[in-house]
From TrEMBL:
Pfam families: Patatin (PF01734). The nitrogen atoms of the two glycine residues in the GGXR motif define the oxyanion hole, and stabilize the oxyanion that forms during the nucleophilic attack by the catalytic serine during substrate cleavage. One of its GO terms (molecular function) is phospholipase activity. It comes from the Eukaryota. Transmembrane segments: none annotated. Its EC number is 3.1.1.-. Residues 39-235 form the PNPLA domain. SUPFAM superfamilies: FabD/lysophospholipase-like (SSF52151). This is Patatin. Coiled coil: none annotated.
C-alpha cells in the first residue's frame, strides 16, 4: 500500500450557483438534488491516517450542522479509493448490521493505530518475497467485511485494482456490481486486492462466477499502479452512467462539471524533493532504478506520475471553467503514525494552495483562508444539499 506523490486536499467546486450536496443511502434516495458529490481518497499505506484526520474533521462539522448521527457516506453520491484509500472507502460505505456505516470517520484513525503495527511489523519484514506477508491484513479485512458483496454499499463506491495476468486495470464499483454478476465480488477481496502494492504485499487471487455459473478469475495487485489518485476514474464512471441514463441523483449532462462537487484527499509525501536529476539517472543500471540509496526510484516515478497526471488533468479541466479558486491542495511528508496524525491536523491550518499545472508546484492562494476554513464551507454545502434532497 505504499505510494509516493502529493498530499492533496482538493475541493473541486465548479458550481453554477450556491447549490450544495449530500445524499441518503441508495435504498432511500427518492429525490433529485442539485449537485453530484464525489469523495476520492488516494493510496498511501499507513499514510491513510492523514485523510482519516481530514475526514474526521469534516464529519465533525457535518455533525455540528445535522446532529451526532451524521456520517460522511450520507453526503456523497460516490466514494472512490485506491489502495489504503479503498480500505477507507469500504469503512465509510459498508453497512453494519443496522444498515448504518460500518465506521464513523473518527474511527478510521483508530483502526490504523490499532492494526497498523501488525499489518506492517517492523521486526518481521521478509527479505525474499514481499516485504510483508499480508496475513494479518487479510484476516482483519475479512473479519470486518465478512461475506458482504460490493453491491451492498450504502453509497456507490469505485475501487481500482490491476490484473497482473491480463495486464489491465480492473475497476470494481457498486453500479457495476448491481448489473454484472461477475463484478459483484466480496468487498473484502476487493480491499485486499487494491492494497496489494508490488514489493510490499502479495498479489491476491480470487474467483467469481458469471450468470451462467462459469468461473471468472482475478489475479490482482494494488490499483495504485494504474490510478493512485482515483478522482478521474470516479468522474469517468459518473459520466458513463449519465450517458447510459443510469445516474438518478440529479439532472446533469455529460461533462457538466458546473454541477459537481468533488473532495479529493491525498496521502503522499512531498514530491518536490529534487532527489533525482537527469545527469544522475543517465548513468543508472536497472538495479539503480529499482533500488538507490534506500529509495525505489522506479516505483516513485510510476506512483507519482499516476497521481499527478490525474491532479493536473482534473485541475486543468476545472480551471478552464473558471473554478480554479475552488481547488485546494497541499503537501506533506511522513515519519510515523503519531507524526501522520499531527500532519493531518497541521494540514488543516495551512493556507489553501493550488497546483500550477505548468510546474506541478503548489502555490498558496491569498484570501482563501485555511484548509479547515475550506472544509467548514464544504460541510455547509453538503448539509444544504442534503436538506434540499430530503425536503424535495
Amino acid at each position: 500500500m505504499k505510494a509516493t506523490g502529493f498530499l492533496v486536499l482538493a475541493l473541486l467546486l465548479a458550481l453554477a450557483s450556491a447549490h450544495e450536496c449530500a445524499t441518503k443511502p441508495p435504498a432511500v434516495r427518492t429525490t433529485k438534488g442539485n449537485t453530484v458529490t464525489v469523495l476520492s481518497i488516494d493510496g498511501g499505506g499507513i499514510r491513510g491516517i492523514i485523510p482519516g484526520t481530514i475526514l474526521a474533521f469534516l464529519e465533525s462539522k457535518l455533525q455540528e450542522l445535522d446532529g451526532p448521527d451524521a456520517r460522511v457516506a450520507d453526503y456523497f453520491d460516490v466514494i472512490s479509493g485506491t489502495s489504503t484509500g479503498g480500505l477507507v472507502t469500504a469503512m465509510l460505505a459498508a453497512p453494519d448490521k443496522d444498515n448504518k456505516p460500518l465506521f464513523a470517520a473518527s474511527d478510521v484513525n483508530k483502526f490504523y493505530f490499532e492494526h497498523g503495527p501488525k499489518i506492517f511489523p517492523q521486526d518481521n519484514a521478509s527479505a525474499t518475497g514481499p516485504k510483508y506477508d499480508g496475513k494479518y491484513l487479510r484476516s482483519i479485512i475479512r473479519e470486518l467485511l465478512g461475506n458482504m458483496t460490493t453491491n451492498r454499499t450504502l453509497t456507490d463506491v469505485i475501487i481500482p485494482t490491476f490484473d497482473i495476468k491480463l495486464l489491465q486495470p480492473i475497476i470494481f464499483s457498486t453500479s457495476d456490481a448491481r448489473v454484472k454478476f461477475s463484478k459483484n465480488a466480496l468487498l473484502a477481496d476487493v480491499c485486499i486486492s487494491t492494497s496489494a502494492a508490488p514489493t510490499i504485499l502479495p498479489a491476491h487471487y480470487f474467483e467469481t462466477t458469471y450468470e451462467d455459473g462459469t468461473t471468472r478469475s482475478f489475479n490482482l495487485i494494488d490499483g495504485g499502479v494504474a490510478a493512485n489518485n482515483p478522482t478521474q476514474v470516479a468522474l469517468t464512471q459518473i459520466f458513463n452512467e449519465i450517458l447510459k441514463g443510469n445516474f438518478e441523483f440529479i439532472d446533469i449532462k455529460p461533462m457538466d462539471t458546473t454541477k459537481m462537487l468533488v473532495l479529493s484527499l491525498g496521502t503522499g509525501a512531498a514530491k518536490l524533493e529534487a532527489k533525482y536529476n537527469a545527469s544522475m539517472v543517465a548513468q543508472w543500471s536497472p538495479i539503480n532504478w529499482i533500488f538507490d540509496k534506500g529509495a525505489t526510484p522506479l516505483i516513485d516515478v510510476y506512483s507519482a506520475s499516476s497521481a499527478d497526471m490525474v491532479d493536473i488533468q482534473v485541475s486543468s479541466l476545472f480551471q478552464s471553467l473558471g473554478a480554479e479558486k475552488n481547488y485546494l491542495p497541499d503537501i506533506a511528508t511522513t515519519t510515523n503514525m503519531e507524526a501522520l496524525a499531527d500532519i493531518g491536523n497541521k494540514l488543516l491550518e495551512k493556507s489553501v494552495a493550488r497546483v500550477n499545472i505548468d510546474t506541478g508546484a503548489f502555490e498558496p492562494v491569498v484570501g482563501e483562508g485555511t484548509n479547515s476554513d475550506a472544509l467548514t464551507r464544504f460541510a455547509k454545502l453538503l448539509s444544504d444539499e442534503r436538506k434540499i434532497r430530503i425536503a424535495n
